[in-house]
Amino acid sequence: MLQRVDDGAWRILLASVVAGALWEAAGPAITFAAGAAFAALAGAALVVVKATMTRKS
Q1: Alpha carbons 47 and 11: distance in angstroms, whole number
Q2: 9-48 as b/e: b if 16+ CB within 10 A
Q3: What is the pLDDT of residues 14-29, one digit of tens each?
Q4: Cα 1 to chain centroid, rounded
Q5: What is the distance between the terminal CA atoms of the chain, rounded to a whole angstrom?
Q6: What is the DSSP letter of 27?
């Protein structure tokens, strides 16, 4: 489990740096809107992947 945390640490750092830069450049409202948009995109991707895997089974 510790290995998986270490492997993902750079992703968390990158997300924090991008969010911080966005916060400084555009403000908190845009940063939270971008977070919501990425979450919606991830949710849509999960729905598509699940539908694709269900059809193959």
Answers
A1: 23
A2: eeeeeeeeeeeeebeeeeeeeebeeeeeeeeeeeeeeeee
A3: 999 999 999 999 999 9
A4: 21
A5: 30
A6: -
Dump pLDDT digits (tens) for 30-46.
999 999 999 999 999 99
Tell me if the pTM is above 0.70. yes
Closest listed residue to residue 19, CA positions, set 1, 34, 9, 38: 34
Of 24, 45, 22, 43, nearest to 34 (Cα)?
22
* Contact between residue 23 and residue 31 where contact means Cβ atoms under 8 Å apart: yes
- Three-state secondary-structure class, residue 57: coil
Q: Give the separation between CA 57 and CA 54, rounded to whole angstroms.
A: 5
